[in-house]
Structure formats: C-alpha cells, structure tokens
Amino acid sequence: MTVLKTSMRNFLAHKGRMALSAVAVILSVAFVCGTLVFSDTMSTTFDKLFAATSADVTVSPKSAEGAGQAPSSGKPESMPASVVSRARKAEGVKTAEGAVSSESVTVVNSENKDVGPTSGGPTIAGNWTHNDLRSMDITSGHAPRGPTEAMIDADTADKHDLKIGDELRTIAATGDHTAKISGIAAFKVTNPGATIVYFDTETAQRELLGATGRFTHVSLTAAAGVSDTALKANVASALDKGAYDIKTQKETADDNRKSVGSFLDVMKYAMLGFAGIAFLVGIFLIINTFSMLVAQRTREIGLMRAIGSSRKQVNRSVLTEAVLLGVVGSVLGVGAGIGLAVGLMKLMSGVGMELSTGDLTVNWTTPVVGMVLGVVVTVLAAYLPARRAGKVSPMAALRDAGTPADGRASTLRAVIGLVLTGAGAFGLYTASQADKASEGSLFLGGGVVLTLVGFVVVGPVLASGVVRVFSAVLLRAFGPVGRMAERNALRNPRRTGATGAALMIGLALVACLSVVGSSMVASATDELDKSVGADFIVQSDKGAPITAKAAASLKKAEHIGHITRLKGVEADMTTPGGKTVDEVSLSAADPTYAKDLRRETVAGELSAAYGKNAMSVGDKFAEKHGLGVGDELKVAFAHGRTADLRIAAVTKDDGALDNGAMYLSISTLEKYVPADRITQNEIMFATAAKGQEEAAYQSLKDALAAYPQYKVMDQTDFKETLKDQVGQLLNMVYGLLGLAIIVAILGVVNTLALSVVERTREIGLMRAIGLSRRQLRRMIRMESVVIALFGALLGLGLGMGWGATAQKLLALEGLKVLEIPWPTIIAVFVGSAFVGLFAALVPAFRAGRMNVLNAIATE
C-alpha cells in the first residue's frame, strides 16, 4: 500500500510530464483500436449487405466466378431460361425467378460523366426481381416497365443529382443502351459504395447478355419449414448433376465476403503495422520520461533506501507509475480509437465508400487488446529506468543528485551496437547480391531490423560525434549561446540518442519508400523510352477492357498510321516432353505490336511469332522447360480448341513491361476460339501518321469522347499517370507514418521539458550572471534543432540504404534504375529543423518565465 501511495504521489506530482508520455500511449492505442473498430465495422456492413442480397438458394453456371462477374469477353456467363422452370419443380421451392446481373458495365449521365463509384466499388446492371425487395425499397417512381426505362439506387442519385426523367446510358460489351430513370430505390442496409442500375428482364437480357431467354443466376426461396441445405439438395437432384453451382444463402454470402476479405485484411494489417511503428517510437518517449524522472528523484530514492526501502520496492514504485500511465493512456486511447474509426468512416464516405455509424461495431476484444497493449508496452518501456533506479546505492544517491556514468556499460553498448549494425549491413549487402528476389527479400528484412536496432543501440555513441559536427556548422556562429546548446545536447548522449532514434524510425521509413517509389517511376519511364514505340496508349482508368464498339470508334480516327489491339487469353500448354502447364496467360496482339513494344529476343524474331500457328515464349519459361525456337507446344485455349503452335521467338525477360509475356497473333486466336468467347481488348496502341502527332492525338480523343471510362495518353501522359499513382500511394503511407513522427515530436518536447526542470538551478545561475530570456530560449531551441537534425540524419541515411537495397531486388523484376529523390530528402532534412524549433516552443517559453531567485534556490 505504501508503494502505491508513493507511486500515486509521484505520478500526480509530475502529471504534466506524464501527460506528454500518455499522449504517445493514447495515439498508439487509438490507432490500433480505431483500425480494429473500422475493419470490424466494414465487415459488419458487408455481412449485412451480402445476407440481405442473397437468396435462400442461388443457382449459377458452373464456370461463373460469381453472379455478375463477367469474363474478359465482357458478357457474364449465362444459362438457358429452362433452368428456372426445372428448378421451380424441385421439392421445397416456394418461388424461383431468373436474374440477370453484370459488373462489366459503365453508366454515364446526360452530360457523358461516369456515375459509377470512384472508391473501387462495382457498377452493377441487372433486372429488377422480387429477390431485390429483400434489400431495396422503391422510394420514388416505379420499377422499369420497358426498354426505355431504368431504375437507379438512391445513393448514386443523390451523389450525382439524378432524378426521375433523367437520361442514363449504359455501356456494355454488347453495345450502348439509353433509358430514362423511372424510379429510385434505396438500400435497406448500408450500401458500401456500389452503383446499381435496373432494367426490365427482357431489356437486361438483350443489352447485357446479347440474347433473350437467358439468365446469369436463379434465385430460389424455400417453402415454410424447408431449410436452405435441404432445398439445395432437392434442387441439385432436379438439375443436371455437376452442371451448375448451387449455393445456400450462407455459402453465397461467404463467397462474397471472401471476395472483399483480402482487401479488408490488407487495409487492416497495413494500418496495424503503422500503429506498431507508433508504439515503437512511443517506447523511446516513455523510456526517456522515466529515465529523467528517476534521475531527478535520485536523492529522494536515496532517502527511501536509507530508511529501509528495498531495491524491489523502489523498482516496484517506478513500475507502478508506469502501470498508472499505461491504464490512463489506454483507457483514453480506446475512446479516441472509436472516435478515430468514426472519422475514418466519414473520410471513406467522402471518397465514395459509404459506411454508416449505425453499423459501428466495437467487439469486446478491441478494448481488451488496446488495454493490454498500452499497459504492457508502457511497463516494458519503464522497466530499464525502474531497474536502474533500484540499483542506486543510498550513499551515492544522498551524496549527488545523479549517478556517475558507467563507462563499461557505454563501451559494451557501443560494441553491441556496432556488431548489430555490421550484421545488418552484411544482410543488406547479401540481399543486393541475390540472384532471386524471393531469396534476397529474407536478407533485406533481416538487414532492416538489425541495422535499425544497431543504430538505436549505438545512437548515444553517434550522438557525440554528429552533434559536434552540427554544432560546428550551425551553432558556433551564435557564440556562447550556441556552445551552451551544444554542451546541453552532449550532456547526456544516451538521452539525445534515444530522442533522436524516435524521430529516426519514422524518417527512415519515409526515405526508404521515397527511394523505392522514385526508382519505380524512373525505371518505368526508362523502360517506356527504350521499349514503347507507339505514340499513344489507350486504356481504362479502372482496368476495364475496351468494348468492341469503342475499339471500332478508335479505328475510324484520322491521321493514324496503325492501331494495335492486345488481348489476354488463358490456356493449358503441353511441352514436347509431355509436361502440362495449366492456366498460362497468353497475349494475343496484332503483328504491329512488335513495333509498338520493342522486346529484345535471345532467339528468333518477335515479328515471326505473329505468323500462322506461331508464338513466342519468355527465356525463363524456355529455360525451365527446355524449349527453343522450332519446338511445338500443344495449346488448349480456354473455351476453345487445342492448337499446335510453333515457337518462333524467345524473348528476354529482364524488363518491367510485359515481363514473361508469351505472344501470338489475334488471327491465330480467332482460328481456335469462337468469336463470342474471344476476350475484349485489354489495351490498345496507336501510332500517328508521320508528322501528324498532334492531329492524331486529338482525333483519338474525339473518337472516344462518348466513352469517358477510357483514356488516350501519349508517352508523356502515361509517365505522369505512373508518377501520380505512385505519388498517391506514397502520400497515403506518409500520412500514416505521420502518426509515428507526431509521437517522436512529443518525445522531443518531453525531453526538453524534463531537461529544463533538471537544469532549473543552472538556468537560474545563468540568468543571474546576465543571460537574457531571449538568449535562454534561443539556447533551448538550438538544442532541439540539433537533436532533431541528428535523428533526421540517421533516419534519412538509414532509409536511403534500405531503399537502395530494395531497388537492387526490384531490378531482378525489371526495375533497374536507382533514383534518389534528393529534393524530398533535402526537404525532409530541412523540415526536421523546423520540427525541432516547433518542439522547443513550449519548453523554451516555460524556461524563459522562470523566477531567477526561485530557480537558484532549487536543489
């Protein structure tokens, strides 16, 4: 009880300093809990949606990936309407109705603007059925009654200011269809961000499937007292065995959940990873806080020991304070995490993914995880200072308000740090020399961890040298004030090293990702310059294939030398040795593709691969299967016949574009695959007639004016698109890393604040002999700047090393150019100085307000 009272007294006596450390715990716990609540809420939203939209039993074609998911031909897999009547006759069926659904569509308004989601959600077109009443209510107008009418979901109508009578154009693989809005339907559950358009059944069949009398799936409702499982068995008996996929509501919902589960998991674990980084940075802040509090209470600890307190009691007292800090910070962090989750939901709504706070899900595990993490991390961080406090001898503590530095410990620390750093550097070197990216990644991971830990351990040793260099360059010009700032930063290298290390971690990751991102863009740009001969590239912003009608419009463009189509096709291949390779991706293109994308060959000519019954393979595939020019492969095309194709060229697989691609001509594909099963164009290339580049560029854009989902880019546009895509990803990562940097800034603030308290008497004496308040504040600001620059230098140097090694591994996949983004690195380094200035504002202000006489009288 005495230990608890002492701990409570000390905790409340230093509540201001504890508050800064508590903020680190709060932020870290909040990020973890916010991530868990956000991901659980998303799961709940999708679970409700899938449960509401799934029929008791659903029948779909065996080869279909899922209702509405179209293959590359653009038309969903379908089955004859006779399946509906056959399924209806199964025992236990109350109702059976055929449904049409396709996600391979684009819907535009009267202004030719895409009304589909921008958040990655699907645009779904289909027929209105009774099963849709499970999840939708018609809030105005009526369901479509003919080919000139369509109904749209309320969320899309609100977002794009659509109303009854407005015109919509639906672009599908079979062509374009225009209709006017006859009704608006609202979801009974939260719509995460899909756009839904309904037609009458006959129109949906004709416009989405290309033929009437066919459906993509059948929705069955069970009669009273019949379970979904029993109904599934009965329907399976009534239909051709093995010809259809038959699933219960739960099975359908589970399959749909899996389709979004990987996306949710990636988001969840990525955010938890950044929360872990914030926790790691917070550990340094907490260690510094307790180390300085223990140092300031050395005399008090000596008195406690002198009157009979044991080492364990002193140790326990400090750890009890840590538990109090952890509990308070974790409780507040859990609450803040729920608020953060709500904020993330609002943010996602802003970019098109609707999440309702009504679905906010806080599982009991979330606060438990937050509390356990917060308390455990805080106690672990406080363990070393607590252990150090327990080792203070009573006489030494009473004799001096501090303990002498342990020279042997410092030497041992330096040796361990150098060994770890050396081992990490060796790991990074080994990774850079790897022949395979999969092997090198293991060494890269080990090297990153070891160099990070090594720099943290050896930080105090580095601090002495680096701070002196910075002082010579930056501080000496400020005379005595600058020299005092230098001595203050060097007074406790361990503290300076720990404070700088907290900032180092976040900036190391920023530098590493900047190098990798810049190298990716530079490599792709270099590859484009070397390999792409086409003047223009046409593709969808969302990765959708180019419809036949859009492709036909492109061919009518003027001032064009040639247009090249590129299609993807799946096939099983059998080598001359009899080995079968399943589900190989092939690229079918026009012969001009050999000019549009220059691929280096190790044998044969690529142009020959577009001849009759010919193809090319990559050199890695050829080496693996012992193939060469002249060998024949049996190629069994998906949805087509088997062909004997001669290898006419072996391409070199060392580039970033089309690495490993195998080519054949579209004419060969058309010979063995039925026309209605041939995939749509994945991408198209165009070359301008000589000297008419600008006219051709505008002509292509005019040709696709009616199709806003496609983009015409020249090589400059394409490079900018790549740069923007990488930049957007990096900005998102930098935003998440900002949490760790905020915690690191708090660490600098806390270190300076406690340092000011520790030097109260010294500051009073300096003021007494003539140091002005302005000079005092400048001294503290300079000390903060040097510490921040020290952490930035270590972090940026370490991060560039990691990034350069990662680029070496990426070079094995074709990304061969290493580019250091010096403007970003320099900006971050200079920005760190401003971070130091900002962090010093409050401590410097408080120091300047000290009463001189009271400060001198302080023991």
Structure description:
By secondary structure, the chain is of the alpha+beta class. The chain folds into 4 domains: 1-54 and 253-404, no CATH class; 63-241, no CATH class; 459-533 and 713-859, no CATH class; 545-708, no CATH class. The protein is built from 26 helices and 24 strands. Strands 15, 16, 17, 18, 19, 20, 21, 22, 23 and 24 form a 10-stranded mixed β-sheet that branches. The longest helix is centred in the first third of the chain and has 48 residues, at 249-296. The two termini are 29 Å apart. 48% of the residues are buried. Residues 66-70 and 400-405 have low confidence and may be disordered. Residues 60-129 are annotated as: Disordered. The chain crosses the membrane at residues 269-295, 322-344, 364-386, 412-430, 442-475, 496-516, 732-757, 784-804, 824-845. This is FtsX-like permease family protein. Residues 19-236, 499-702 form the MacB-like periplasmic core domain.
Task: Summarize the helices and strands and which ones pair or pack.
Layout: H1 2-13, H2 15-53, E1 57-61, E2 79-80, H3 82-88, E3 93-99, E4 101-102, E5 106-108, E6 123-127, E7 136-141, E8 149-153, H4 154-159, E9 167-172, E10 175-187, E11 195-199, H5 201-209, E12 214-215, E13 217-222, H6 228-238, E14 244-248, H7 249-296, H8 298-306, H9 311-350, H10 365-390, H11 394-399, H12 407-432, H13 437-475, H14 479-491, H15 493-531, E15 536-540, H16 548-555, E16 560-574, E17 580-589, H17 593-596, E18 601-604, E19 614-618, H18 619-625, E20 632-637, E21 642-651, E22 663-665, H19 666-672, E23 681-688, H20 693-703, E24 710-714, H21 715-758, H22 760-768, H23 773-811, H24 822-839, H25 841-848, H26 852-857
Parallel strand pairs: 6-11, 8-10, 17-22, 19-21
Antiparallel strand pairs: 1-13, 1-14, 2-12, 3-13, 4-6, 5-9, 7-10, 8-11, 9-10, 15-23, 15-24, 16-17, 16-20, 16-23, 18-21, 20-21
Protein name: FtsX-like permease family protein
Membrane topology: Multi-pass membrane protein
Region (Disordered): 60-129
